[in-house]
Fold this sequence. Notes:
The chain is built from four helices and no strands. By secondary structure, it is an all-alpha fold. The protein folds into two domains: 68 residues; 57 residues, no CATH class. Helix 1 runs antiparallel to helix 2. The two termini are 41 Å apart.
Amino acid sequence: xxxxxxxxxxxxxxxxxxxxxxxxxxxxxxxxxxxxxxxxxxxxxxxxxxxxxxxxxxxxxxxxxxxxxxxxxxxxxxxxxxxxxxxxxxxxxxxxxxxxxxxxxxxxxxxxxxxxxxxxxxxxxxxxxxxxxxxx
Length: 136
């Protein structure tokens, strides 16, 4: 990664606070707030574009790796083993570790907590969006 990107990532929060909290001249402050609003909209659109195109890019990278493989069967077997490993890790984390941590910290039943969140969980999985379940 280019060093200027790191410099930009460090300087942007400081520039934002300078624009919003900076000079107490009202015209300069209004200009800074307007500039930051435009900047936030631009960054939001860039992030949205990356989120919409990343599944295609990831699928293309996987397809390219599979096509480069000398032995297609062993490559697909390794990919299947990776998928099983990830799913098993998620199952262990969500099914054992997190409920045990909840019980150890609060002495509450994890199942009662899950039952309380069940409507939001079903809505979140059904819409593939956690923000859709926020009002619930």
